[in-house]
Amino acid sequence: MKNKIIEIETKLAFAEESIEQLNDVIISQQKSIDKITRMLKQLDKKVEEESQHWQQQNPIDETPPHY
């Protein structure tokens, strides 16, 4: 019976360590996701600003630079 308890305690210790490692990975991935999300929002904002800029210039009426 004592050996069974030691075996269970050993498995529990390894399980707890594995859970902590997985939690660290999840935290790291979430930080990466948050950073990528912020960068994507910034990029989306810049694209929108550039789009508005080009729409204001009305490039349809301009002669292309290669002419």
Descriptive overview:
With 67 residues, the protein is mostly helical. It has one helix at residues 2-57. The longest helix has 56 residues, at 2-57. It is rod-shaped. The protein starts with a helix and ends in a 10-residue tail after the last helix.
Task: Identify the notable features of this structure and list them briefly.
67 residues, mainly alpha, 84% helix
Summarize the entry for a quick read.
84% of the residues lie in helices and 0% in strands. It is mainly alpha-helical and 67 residues long.
Number of strands: 0
Largest sheet: none
Determine the structural class based on helices, strands and strand pairing: mainly alpha
Give the radius of gyration. Answer: 28 Å
Classify the beta-strand content into a percent band: under 5%
The ordered H/E elements are H
Count of helical regions: 1
Q: Averaging pLDDT over every residue, what do you get?
A: 90
User: Which overall shape is indicated by the principal axes computed on the Cα atoms?
Assistant: rod-shaped
- The end-to-end span amounts to 91 Å
